Amino acid sequence: MTTSVDTIRLLLHEVPHGQELTDAQRTGTQCVWCEAPYGAGFIDLGGISRRFRPQACTECHTLHSAALQSYFEWVDHVAGCVLCTDKRPCPTTDRMREGHARARQDCGSQDVRCFDCAAPVDLQHPALPVLWLGEAAAAHLLYSHAGQCPVTEATPHG
Q1: Cβ pair 54, 15 in contact under 8 A
Q2: What's the pTM?
């Protein structure tokens, strides 16, 4: 089996962690996202053994690939844009954020939190992608509020 970079990215960034999957999803007899039973057109997402060999139905693979692709295109734009690197999103990044938000919604991805303040990030409002390399071997696909993070009220101690 030949594994493409896109498949590796899906495995690293989109496939739920092994402990979040059912036995059938871990072994590839159900789609990792929609739990459809294994069938024609299923795509092997790689894996490390017979006990972890995730598979995806064609529809879920297409939707999650689109969400991941839109994130990396957005990151690439932000990295080279003078306004965006200063946390002032330009019109191009606004269009890319909206497209990414639609792609995430189409595949049912979970809500996201801000890398800086941990508050929820609504991708319908100005936000930026944060590709963080972190301490682990894999990159982390994160988000941040554009400009300043929302101010939260201090909770009185007492």
Answers
A1: yes
A2: 0.83
